[in-house]
Amino acid sequence: MLFTSALLLSALSLTSALPTFSSDQSVEQRDTAWAWDEGASSDYTIHISCNATERAQLLRALNESITLAQHAKDHILRFGNSSETYVKYFGNASTTAEPAGWFDKLVNGDKTGILFRCDDVDNKCYQDGWAGHWRGEISPDQTVICPLSFEARWSLEAMCAHGYTVAEQKDSLYFGADLLHRLYHTEKIAEGVVDHYADTQEEILQLAIEHPEEAVRNSATLRHFAVEVYAYDIAVPGQGCAGTVPVASELPASSSTVASASTVSSAASECHTHADGEVHCA
Q1: How far apart are CA 170 and CA 265, in angstroms?
Q2: Per-residue pLDDT tens for 69-126?
């Protein structure tokens, strides 16, 4: 009897020593659980140096960049390498997963730290033809947009207008496509992998044949593909405006339509300085 009483007393002592939790405490613990995506950003950041008009134009252009990237990814996921346009730009021997991934990263990747600014902090916008530049090693995820970009770029609504063709004019005529180029310079997006392996349309098509492993990570290839499939699938369905690579001797001496596009294209070259100091205007 004494032994039983001692056991009961010991059990009561242990019970009273145990912490108690109310239902409110349980809810609080659940509410403060670790959030796996805490601190991530789903939007690109525009610096306070951009005024209201510049901010509005940049927001629209960034949304158009995402539109281009999303459709390019969707086209690849739908058709893979059965798409003639895919094979044209990325070759027969490439993996469809890599370019689809680079497009997806622009759309769904974490955008923390990627910044667009308008204050010409590096004093380069005064140079002829400079519509913006990547800041390179100084700030590898920052891009300066110069006034020329706001004056000369077109919106996606003008896709295939003004005599534009993918093969004969620069994709940078479209603000959304131009920002694809600038985003593929940032460390956050490109990871030091997406680069300039080829720039002109002729070089891009040759790269797809000779080095498809580079084509899938070539900045210009990704951009030209995105613009061409958007033009064919969305802007002018079933027709697009691919154009053909002109032979030098066949270039027209004068043409009001093409001249207009080429004048704006020349004025709005996307010049920037690479990490090694090389100035690139494409």
Answers
A1: 6
A2: 999 999 999 999 999 999 999 999 889 999 999 999 999 999 999 999 999 999 999 9
106: part of which helix (H) or strand (E)?
Answer: helix 97-108
Q: How far apart are the C-alpha atoms of 116 and 258, rounded to whole Å?
A: 31
Q: Is 6 helix (H, G, I), strand (E, B) or coil?
A: helix
Q: Which of 64, 145, 45, 65 is nearest to 105 (CA)?
A: 65
| Six token digits for residue 16 | 């009273």
Write the CB contacts of 190 (distance below 8 Å, at least 6 apart in sequence).
Answer: 184, 219
Q: Is 244 left (phi over 0), alpha (psi -120 to 50) or beta?
A: beta
Where b means 16+ CB within 10 Å and e means fewer, 227-237 reads bbbbbbbebee
Residues with Cβ within 8 Å of residue 88, at least 6 apart in sequence: 205, 208
> Coil, strand, or helix at residue 188?
helix
134 forms beta bridges with: 143
Going by the DSSP 8-state scheme, the letter that residue 112 receives in this structure is T
Q: What whole-number distance in Å separates Cα of residue 100 and Cα of residue 91?
A: 14
pTM of the full structure: 0.80
